[in-house]
Structures are given as C-alpha cells and as structure tokens.
Design a protein that fits this description.
Structural class: alpha/beta
Number of strands: 9
GO molecular function, one term: methyltransferase activity
Number of domains: 1
Protein name: Methyltransferase
Keywords: Methyltransferase, Transferase
Order of helices and strands: EEHEHEHEHEHEEE
Shape: globular
Pfam families: Cons_hypoth95
Low-confidence stretches: none
Oligomer: single chain
CATH topology: Rossmann fold
Helix content: 25-40%
InterPro entries: DNA_methylase_N6_adenine_CS (IPR002052), RNA_MeTrfase_RsmD (IPR004398), SAM-dependent_MTases_sf (IPR029063)
C-alpha cells in the first residue's frame, strides 16, 4: 500500500502492484519531486501524462495537487488493474473524473497522440512523468523521448526517473535537460521542449 502525500486527496491510501514487477517511487522521492514541481508552478490545471505508470502514484498525486486531467499509461495486466482501482479511488475522493487509464505500450499510445499531417493537431501535455523499467536501454528510451517531444505543450515539463547508476538520457534535439537530482538509488531528470532552428 502507498498513499497520496498532499493535496485535495492527501492521506488517501492507494494500492500497490503486487510482486516485484514494478518499482514504486518512494514517498521521499515523491515528496521532493512534487515540492519542486509546485515551486515551478506547473501542476495547477495541467494535463498530465504518466507513462510506465505502475500503480499510477505519480499521476494520482498530480491529480490531488490540482492537475486538470491525468492519463495513466501501463501495459502490464496486473498494473493496469491496480491503476484502474487507484483512479477510481482518487476520482471518488476528488468528486471529479480526473484520472483515466489507458492500457497499451507507451510507444503505441504516444503514436495515437501525434499530429496527423493535414489533419488534427494531436493531443498535447503539460507534464509528463516517465519511470521506465531499468532494463530499458537509453537507446530505446531515446526513441520514446522523440515521440514525447512531439506531444508537449509550450512550457511543458518532462520528468524522467532512472537508477542513479544509469547514464543521462539521450535527449532529442527538441528537448533540453534543465535540472537533475539524485535521491539515493534514484535520479530524476527534468527537461523541457525547446525550439529547433530550421536549417
């Protein structure tokens, strides 16, 4: 079991994914992360995308702290089931349908948001959490970050959580790291979209 740290649903107990197939963000890291996000003033009314969501604790914390909408993206059946339970719990506590769950691979879900040439502009996000499994290589993560970069709102923020022993992510040209912080075995990387000059 875990809990929502603060906000309108602060103190609410949420389920964890059984077994060791996911790596929950510790309360210490979560508190530090959200303290930083609130200092940046990016959560209020934000559209939040929680990729590799696990139990959905980061996205749900964002909903408690004022996000406009949250989408939890997870592919593992057990984790999806826990995300659905937790989304229902927080939606009930907040008396709003703020948190939704999408089952599927992160890349396929991101592809569904991408702009369509000559068509719709696609779906965009203000805050994106990424806590990929440790076995995912930086080269694989780089391809996903390219897709994330295509669905960011102006002024958006991307938070990547990795092992402190893992090298810095390979950022796409349209995204720039502006901060990083180590908490024991965990390192958080903060990035934002940047304009890419036309050649």
């Amino acid at each position: 079991m875990s809990r929502i740290v603060a906000g309108a649903a602060g103190g609410l107990t949420i389920k964890s994914v059984p077994g060791d197939s996911t790596r929950p963000t510790t309360d210490r890291v979560k508190e530090a992360l959200f303290s930083r996000l609130e200092s940046y003033d990016v959560l209020a009314n934000a559209r939040v995308l929680d990729l590799y969501a696990g139990a959905g604790s980061l996205g749900i914390e964002a909903a408690s702290r004022g996000a406009r909408s949250v989408l939890l993206v997870e592919n593992a059946p057990k984790a999806v089931a826990v995300c659905q339970v937790n989304a229902s719990l927080v939606n009930k506590a907040l008396r709003k349908e703020l948190v939704d769950v999408r089952r599927g691979s992160v890349d396929s879900v991101l592809d569904s948001f991408a702009p369509v040439p000559g068509g719709s502009s696609g779906r965009t996000w203000d805050v994106v959490f990424m806590d990929p499994p440790y076995p995912l290589t930086n080269e694989e993560l780089a391809k996903t970050l390219e897709k994330v970069a295509m669905v960011l709102e102006h002024g958006a923020m991307v938070v990547v959580e990795r092992s402190s022993r893992t090298a810095e992510p390979l950022w796409p040209a349209s995204m720039e790291k502006f901060a990083e912080k180590k908490y024991g075995e965990t390192r958080l990387w903060f990035a934002e979209p940047v304009e890419v000059a036309a050649e």
